[in-house]
Write a structure and sequence with these properties.
By secondary structure, the chain is α+β, with helices and mostly antiparallel strands. It has 24 helices and 21 strands. α1 packs across α3, α2 runs antiparallel to α3 and α15 packs antiparallel against α16. The radius of gyration is 29 Å and the shape is globular. The two termini are 57 Å apart.
Length: 692
Amino acid sequence: MKFQRFPFVRFAFFFALGVVCRHYLGESVLLPVAILPLLLVVYIWLLWQSSHSNRHVLAILSFLLLFNLGGYRLSMFLMAPEEFPHQTEGYIGQLIQEPQVKDNTVRVVIELSELKTDVGWRSAKGRGRVNAYFSKEAGQALSYGDVVWIEGKPAHTTAPANPGEFDYRNYLAYQNIHYQQFVGHNFSLLRSGTPNWFVAKSLFVRDFCVGQVGKYIANPKSRAVVLALVLGVKDELDNELIASFSATGAMHVLAVSGLHVGIIYLIFFGLVKQVRLNRKKYRWWMAIASLMVLWSYALLTGLSPSVLRAVTMFSFVALGKALFRGGNIYNTLSLSALVLLLYNPYLIMSVGFQLSFLAVFGIVYLHPKLYGLWQPRHWLADKVWSITCVSVAAQLATGPLSMLYFHQFPTYFLVSNLFIIPAATLILVGGLGLLALSFWSAVATLLGVMLNGTVVAVNWLVTQVSHFPGSTIDGVYLSILDAWLLYAVLIGVILFWELHRKSYLQFALAMALAFVLSQTYHFAPYQRSYEFSVIDASRQSVMDFRHGFQSKALADEVFLADPESQQFSLHGKRLISGAKQGVADDELTLASASFPGGSLTVFEGKTILWLNELVDIHWWSKVQIPVDYLVLSGNAISRTEQLEHFSHVQYIVLDKSNSRWVSRYLTLAAKEMGIPVHQVATNGYFSSLWKR
């Protein structure tokens, strides 16, 4: 098949390329707006000529038009963040998303409308949005659409504090969220509103459905899985359950997306086929009915972004079947992607968007080819083989991207998908049946019991597979270049398989070699180096020592007992350096001695003194031990006369567990004593790196 048969694949690619280039390079890559209408006129005129000789010019013009359309669409979508006036007293805004209840706070996204300064009110529309955190007690009274007055001035969102840390600032920027603020109780509710009536009703329907599921499924773990799989509500999933599903490559079933919408669409299409309503004369009735089913399900899930993407995709598939019975799925999928990007160009930066379309394209292209390698005669063997082919196709298409973002690879994904995909279908159908029949208490109770039993069995199987030896390859580090190289290897192998040309295999081998060289170039410097670092962790004391690919963390008890803090602040840094990420897996042995008030560590010729408690330290002036780094935590030292006992140290590091005034005071005192000082709260992550 020639590429010319897939015009919308090219169109979507050109548009997406314009969005990406505009994001990274600015408007300098775009043509002046005044030129674009002229190009469009020329394009239409040449198209009207229907001359074969014009095809190359038409291709260039279509590229220029769609590339610039993508770039300018992003410019229109962006909100320009501006500095708030210094005299800002507060602002008025509206909650444009449903509040998210956290452990100690309630997170809301606020669309700015007005702000108040010492000279009066002014408009704040178009400035962007605020990622605000309210106290849990007060914030739980808020709901979607509420208009609030908030005291104070929000700050710009902050960059990642440590190497390899998740870039939350970029994640928020893709949603036009450029500010952050801890509001606490300093707000007042002005009125209730509805930014989008349809979204408000959808959230109401979803909350009602959540209540019905909770009424008939009492088991917390079973209820959590049903809510996540059927309605996309993941609030009740615990870390242990998430880790088990993630380790087995089954996490995708707990995020309502293309798989779930596809199951619903295929079941509906299968039922219609049984009653012979899929014939040509009924194709428009089929399309309308399909759209009603798909968007009704989207309504049940609260119109979450992932469901909207999947429903839009399958809506185009349904319409494509009605309009172009001889059309191809690649054009249909690309057209749906183009429409979604026209609505929100920053979806191209969304991990969910990327993985969804790659998985569907991979399944559509690779599944028939893999399935054709063997034709089982037995029905059960055929179904097992089909699911296996779907799993392999999806994993090949999304594997490099999954490793880039999630840094792991599930080795038993084939085993888990053999039961998780059929089970997900049963749970999804059973859950929807429970909701539909929830008014009939006896039947709903029976369905609840059956669903609970199914989920208990699935959870047990997932847990068992996650405990298999080597169930997950963790700590996978890929750069963006590495991910592209892996996709190049995959494309080369597929082309060699399809066309049987040696040059494609040579290309794949060359890309594989380039990947190995890229990984070697990245990790070689870490293998030959030592590093002592102080992590930027909120109100916590964390030091990390690294020798080659081995690490050891010294930290306060709160951090050592908090896997989430370790994941957020420390794992990314270790991932980049090739060390094992988990503190529990630390392999490096340190020469350390504890004493009242702190500890002394000797590490590859460097001496690090860590003071983390308030104690009498006059005795230290009598100890003749040279210290390279003095790390101060928890206001262990707060006066100049105390600091004078350490006048011989080479460097002072103040971590984030010190109060602000103590950090500022000690910084000035240390500079007066001629001692270099690093304040983590101000200067960020501290690192000292040296080679063997």
